[in-house]
């Protein structure tokens, strides 16, 4: 099937980059460095609860409600530690600011297997490339430090777009930036509703990165599933 694609858009987290260790572990390590003992598992649970509540109360980093993404994240970190028993406000502020910076670093993120090679090959084949990610403004720096930024003509975050996936308007902005019509573009991501289904609803092609044995969720045609990123080239080579 000749897809006649011009533009490939990419999710980042758990598609191209992943955290080197769970959030609870990295938060606990930073607390230890400041002389505080907090259990990683407890912190991980607190973080998931706080992140979920903050995302519902202040969607897309609270941009529509007057928050900055930095303030949004500082609040999440502090509240995660508070919920895990840390009460010292000075310590909380220091932890939050340090962790906010740490999550920009290449020590925190690693490139997924096959990602750099696949991106390089896609560029050699002449595809235009962009990022479409529910991320804050730190993403440019993270991609640069992980040596992936040069693969992309644009990096569109939900913070910059003002809309988060699965909102179709973030894909419309990406298509304008990439100079392509929906049927000339494909999106690659790991999340069924935010990546695969949302891109298809916007009229694009889409591929779902899904390790073998992920039987949860709706059926996706096998030709749209990527067991690894390296499988993409066979699906799109012109």
Task: Describe the overall structure.
It is built from ten helices and eight strands. The protein is of the alpha/beta class and 238 residues long. It folds into two domains: 7-16 and 112-234, 3-Layer(aba) Sandwich (Rossmann fold), CATH 3.40.50.1000; 21-107, Haloacid dehalogenase-like hydrolase (DNA polymerase, domain 1, Orthogonal Bundle). The strands form two sheets. A six-stranded parallel beta sheet has the order 5-4-1-6-7-8. It has a two-stranded antiparallel ribbon with strand order 2-3. Strand 4, helix 6 (139-145) and strand 5 form a beta-alpha-beta unit. The model has no long low-confidence stretch (mean pLDDT 94). This is Haloacid dehalogenase-like hydrolase domain-containing protein 3. Belongs to the HAD-like hydrolase superfamily. Pfam families: Hydrolase.
